[in-house]
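Help needed: design a sequence for this.
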């Protein structure tokens, strides 16, 4: 969540409802295990809340039902949430038999940590919120009374394990996740979205549609693209490469490893080492696997003298990078250890910079829209005065250019004040999918650090050396992650131009196979991806299988179709378009199988 969004959420009624429901749940759990339940923390989170407990036995789904019933009783009794500031001494007495709370109180006393164990600047007041028999160490905010919680709009969702303070050396607690909304309708919609998210899970669809896998023998977080997934990627990359060429990009290629000196100069070994893999030794030299492509593109820029007339330069590369991620956070194609970025670096003169940003943003949106994405949310991260490289004037000019481009683009955007990395301001573009989820895709990032550390220059009209602006940008982001997002957004039913198999031809009987193969040939000649289902299955079984594979068109061929050189067209949506001449179908698919604009 962006900073501004997070703040808005924290001030919302929903936030208070969820926080208050977490307290009600904790009361119900304590009553279920009188004198034995140890409570840890229970904050609201996006779409709900959780609470962590140390309990004498494992919770079951049946327990959640019992707890929910008790929660509704507590809510109905209309208890007031009472706020009080207390001393550390009083707090310790109150929680004498609650070791996790004692640890939190000690943290508060020392300052530096809040009641969730998160770092804070000043030692806060210690406060509690009490309703009925439950009192929590808490700074709120809460609703005034339990009756403000809608008993028909709450639900306990699941139980998970969570280490106390996220530390695997501390006790494993039981976390109950729950959700709360203002109305029963909202709850229902949310539960639908949860279900739908499961159906769309790219890991599940990746298997069902045979798109990709991760092999234990290869290693976690390393993606194997199967032929069908590989076809989607190839089509996507072909399209993007063509568009890049038209937009004035040059294509470069760079190696997977580079000397340690390179990564020292670039600052990666200083700032990014924890995400890099241990070096290889080759002839007494240390080499690192690349976590980014930038230093290589910088070297290409530096390979000769650049004149003001050469700029702007735009170096594009589908560059595969490797970054260390803990095995616990790896997630299908979304979070991996090796991935390919659709990366590019722009080098331009200061006077070209605003137009360059305009062009890159416009190009960016065109590419994203081609894949059927429509709703975006942009974020502009601005300078953090305590941590920034480069001239303030450059920061101002570039931030201004980014914001003006955003204004002209009509994209909704928010400003994340002071959230930029030290080397330059940036725009992030997130896509809002069919379920309202945000997916980070594109980044347009200024860099005032690399041109300085690698001493990049161009010779200006005045015959003197000047520093170019450098912009990093990735549009789809990583091909792996992008594929995951594509799968989830389209629920595996890729836009027709991207579908790995576009047409399934289904002969009704063996005697129709010849005509089926003939049609397949004609479609292939026109560049379409087609297969003939020659199995001796029943027609309906073949149609069902093609539908499960989300193949856009199913062409059924029987006696009548052979006689009239036609096909019966069915769509993966189960719509039946009826019979159509093969030539008419060719026209139809030619119109439909194109990127959206
Ligand atoms: Zn609380
Ligand atoms: Zn870069």
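Sure. Designed sequence:
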């Amino acid at each position: 969540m962006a900073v501004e969004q997070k703040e808005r959420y924290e001030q919302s009624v929903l936030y208070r409802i969820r926080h208050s429901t977490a307290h009600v749940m904790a009361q119900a759990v304590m009553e279920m295990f009188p004198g034995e339940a140890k409570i840890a923390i229970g904050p609201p989170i996006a779409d709900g809340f959780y609470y962590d407990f140390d309990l004498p036995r494992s919770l079951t789904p049946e327990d959640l039902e019992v707890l929910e019933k008790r929660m509704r009783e507590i809510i109905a009794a209309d208890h007031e949430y009472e706020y009080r500031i207390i001393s550390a001494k009083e707090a310790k007495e109150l929680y004498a038999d609650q070791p996790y709370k004692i640890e939190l109180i000690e943290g508060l006393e020392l300052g530096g940590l809040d009641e969730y164990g998160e770092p804070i600047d000043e030692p806060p007041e210690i406060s509690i919120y009490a309703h009925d028999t439950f009192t929590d160490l808490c700074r709120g905010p809460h609703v005034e009374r339990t009756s403000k919680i809608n008993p028909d709009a709450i639900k306990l969702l699941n139980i998970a394990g969570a280490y106390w303070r996220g530390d695997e050396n501390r006790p494993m607690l039981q976390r109950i996740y729950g959700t709360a909304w203002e109305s029963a309708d909202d709850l229902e919609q949310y539960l639908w979205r949860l279900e739908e998210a499961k159906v769309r899970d790219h890991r599940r669809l990746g298997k069902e549609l045979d798109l990709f896998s991760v092999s234990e023998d290869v290693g976690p977080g390393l993606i194997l693209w199967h032929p069908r997934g590989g076809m989607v990627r190839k089509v996507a990359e072909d399209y993007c490469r063509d568009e890049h060429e038209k937009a004035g990009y040059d294509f470069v290629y760079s190696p997977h490893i580079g000397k340690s000196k390179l990564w020292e100069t670039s600052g990666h070994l200083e700032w990014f080492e924890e995400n890099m893999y241990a070096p290889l030794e080759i002839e007494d030299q240390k080499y690192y696997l690349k976590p980014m492509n930038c230093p290589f593109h910088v070297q290409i820029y530096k390979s000769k003298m650049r004149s003001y007339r050469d700029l702007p330069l735009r170096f594009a590369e589908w560059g595969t990078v490797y970054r260390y991620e803990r095995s616990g956070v790896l997630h299908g194609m979304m979070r991996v250890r090796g991935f390919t970025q659709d990366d590019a670096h722009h080098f331009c003169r200061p006077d070209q910079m605003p137009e360059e940003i305009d062009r890159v943003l416009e190009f960016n949106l065109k590419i994203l829209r081609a894949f059927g994405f429509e709703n975006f949310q942009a974020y502009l991260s601005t300078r953090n005065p305590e941590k920034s490289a480069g001239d303030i004037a450059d920061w101002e000019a570039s931030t201004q250019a980014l914001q003006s481009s955003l204004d002209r683009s009509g994209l909704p955007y928010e400003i994340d004040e002071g959230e930029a990395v030290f080397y330059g301001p940036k725009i992030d573009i997130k896509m809002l999918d069919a379920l309202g989820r945000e997916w980070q895709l594109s980044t347009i990032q200024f860099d005032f650090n690399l041109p300085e550390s690698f001493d990049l220059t161009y010779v200006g009209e005045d015959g003197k050396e000047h520093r170019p602006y450098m912009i990093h940008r990735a549009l789809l982001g990583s091909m792996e992650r992008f594929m995951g997002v594509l799968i989830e957004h389209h629920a595996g039913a890729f836009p027709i131009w991207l579908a790995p198999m576009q047409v399934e031809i289904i002969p009704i009987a063996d005697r129709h196979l010849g005509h089926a193969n003939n049609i397949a040939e004609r479609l292939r000649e026109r560049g379409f991806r087609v297969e003939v289902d020659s199995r001796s299955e029943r027609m309906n079984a073949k149609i069902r299988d093609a539908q499960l594979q989300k193949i856009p068109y199913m062409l059924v061929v029987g006696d009548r179709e052979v006689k009239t050189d036609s096909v019966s067209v069915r769509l993966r949506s189960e719509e039946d378009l009826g019979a159509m001449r093969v030539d008419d179908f060719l026209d139809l698919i030619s119109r439909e199988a194109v990127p959206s604009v």
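The chain has four domains: 3-199, 207-254+290-490, 255-289, 503-592.
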